[in-house]
Amino acid sequence: EPAVYQIKLPDESAVGKGHLLLRLHYVGDVARLYLGGKLLDDNFYNGRTFDLGLTRYAPDIYKQPLVLKILPLQKGAPIYIQKEDMPDFQGKDTVGRLNSAEIVQTHTLTLSVK
d(Cα 114, Cα 107) in Å, to the nearest integer? Predict the structure, then answer.
């Protein structure tokens, strides 16, 4: 059974301009992000964040909540995760949770190559 979260982004004017990412810190097997019932992206857990570029989904992404579904990771699952990225199962057989979500503004700098 997946853990389900609703994520309401602030108004588009409150987050500013530029390249924006929704950064999700989670643990689980697979995280899937939906908008209006449509799958936007998914991510297989590897210890890193799940980043989603917001620009291509504007303005719709600011008008309704996102739904995040995290399928639980089974203890001893036959997948490779680096030792330092293995989640704490806290004495349970599975783990699937969102730890935090944030919006990150990115900048692009074009370099000249000679």
Answer: 23
